[in-house]
## 1
Amino acid sequence: MLRFLGHYTLAIVRELGDFGVFTGRSFSAAVGSRKLGRRVVRSIYEQGVRCVPVIVIVGLFTGLVLGLQGYYVLNKFGSAGLLGTLVSLTLIRELAPVLAALMLVGQAGSALAAELGIQRNSEQIDALETMGADVHAYLISPRLIAAVLVFPIQTTFFSLIGLFGGYLSGTVVLALQPGVYWSAVFHAVHPRDVRECLIKAAVFGFLTIAICAYNGFNAHRRKSASGARAVSASTTRAVVISSIVVLAADYVITSFLV
Amino acid sequence: MTTETTTDLFLDVRGVAKRFGDNVVLSGVDLAVPRGSVVTVLGKSGTGKSVFLKCLAGIVRPDAGEIRFEGHPLNAGDADCRAEFRRRCSYLFQSNALLDSLTVLENVALPLESTTQIPNREIRERCLEALRQLDLEKHSDRYPGQLSGGMQKRLALARAIVTRPELVLFDEPTAGLDPLRRNAVFEMIVKYQRQFGFTAVLVTHDLPEALAASDQVALLDGGRMCFQGTPADFNASDNPTVCSFRDSSGELRETIAALRRGETIQNRNDL
């Protein structure tokens, strides 16, 4: 038992070390990399533009549900006028960064892990290495830079769509006055809340894309599977670990910022 | 074996060993590659030819042994020497390993963009020139998935030679090709080897073509190089492994004839 625990702990420490080196190399490799801007723009498109539909749909329904649930609960206490406060603070402080990150893990993160895994399997990454190309600069750095830029924008977009969803539930479906809803929103949200939201989004973006890239890039190192199974196992692992890390990081950041 | 001294050799491999877990793939492989020559490594499937080539390219790290490039050891942890080797060496993968999300032109431009500071316009001109030489210029905007197998092979070769390398490593360049295309690939290798003057190390199963195209052949068996010499030496060798490999087509004809006569043939255990 002790041996197993020791072995397991060492494996985790080794993997964390590998992950740290991988991420550090990816960032440092960006310096002076040729055509980095073009690759960053392509990554922004993959992680940003292509994820807009899912952000719109999830953001809208999150706002709608928050509006409905919030209205009925607050109305019991005669505080339906605070619906805007409830929806805005819940979204901006917690739900928008976390849900947007989870959606982006499912969409952009899984695609990235699978793409890198297939590139590893089909020797495309080996080919880049034999050409003398810096594979970190070519494959990973643009994605990490794009993630740090795109995730806060996506999260802001998610929050705005969510607020609109809350407005639809509270005022169009239910009986709240639009002015009351928006007034509560504007009075409740402070710049500090927005800053917290953006910091969370940037950190989640960096962590999720780094974890997904690390797992896809190292798909060939999996001992339990090879070939297509290694790609699928790495993709699944990337999504699961990213999702857990988002929730854990949310708790840590919130406890520091609150 | 060859008589070149170490200083004449472009690539000098001594005692390279590699194992994966309990599976010993290479157990002390030697190979001498003179500058400007075409050296072909022959061997049965699963004898570690591709692993050996990947050790040369630095994709796989050998467990033991020494690889010297112009007399400088490559596996001594000298990153500059390894980088210099990579700059002057190209590798043509068995699977071509083309980047499927890039166009033909972008694939060929990639090694130049990655390793040189040549202006973009010049890179484009050099890439188009390489594509023109390999009759791929018309397809420069296509993606590798839209090309035939032979065109993909030519594209991989264009990418390998666009940096004007001094050493090109070919990993089974004719795998899966029909005899006509196989001949075309060997012709292409020899033609461009003569044109650009690079040194070539090939790994293949195709004995007649290899003997015709190579300056030297080597035979890998049991994790070791059991023969290296000229094609004439290979044909004259009485080494049992060489004889078995060389005479395999004759043996096949005899075996098939015996089977047709209804004779019982013992199953081979060397598949």
## 2
Amino acid sequence: MSIGTLVRAPGLVKDQSPDNTIDCISRETSSPEEQMHEQLLESKLGPELFFRMRDAYFADVAYFSSMFCKDMSGTSLGGWGTIQPEIPRTVSNVWDSPKFRKLVAEPVGAPVELTMEEADEIVRLAFGRRPDLPTGKELVKEVRELLGHSLIERLKKMD
Amino acid sequence: MIDLYDTCVFIDYWRGDAAALTLIDFVRGQPRSASYSPVSATELWIYPQLGRQEEIEFVALTRYFLQEAQLNTIAAMKAGQLLRDYSRTQQMRLAADALIAATAEERGERVRTRNYKDFRRFYSNVATY
């Protein structure tokens, strides 16, 4: 089963220095766990973040590394190839559990029950998971105008 | 001194900001040693790019690691008074800042934010990160 297409891999992950992280992977399947992996590999990570991520998901990095190295053998770096998940992942996280797969599939606003240990892991894994968002300052500026407009309009109606 | 984390802390943590990581790691190590305003929850969920997974992550963080700095009547009145001197346009833009600043002042907490300038209009105990 193919889980994705290798688009570009200038440095692979044999050398796990920050300058040699994978640039981009497109995927045919998607789950929170895979999105996390995708972001791990897509991100332009600084040294501090890189080592933190590597520590947190070391086995996952090794898994991808193994896949890429196997797949890319005999091809030039930066070429194209199909990734085959032949080596099982050795470490799972809270998002792998049936409970959280079910929970994340529920609509926004559905009840969320979790233990402190689960919460701690979820918070830890959330770091850097949405590099696509605008900065906090930009986003807050945008939503504060919306919220302020709504509040002031409400007050005007009360005049 | 307890910090009240502004909305931008949550966003910057999701984005992978190292300074936001320091703030969140602090409360993971010392649960309930900082707070957040429910106004932040409203601001976050106005934003349509945040979905179910972010909701679970926000619940995980706020249920176990942050205090809820509830908006009470005294703080709400204070926020209204703080906004009196501003134009209608500025009132719209600054309403949430005033509510959060007044909440922090009422609780004797310091606001941690990247919107330092806007908060300083209303409250002196503000720090960036």
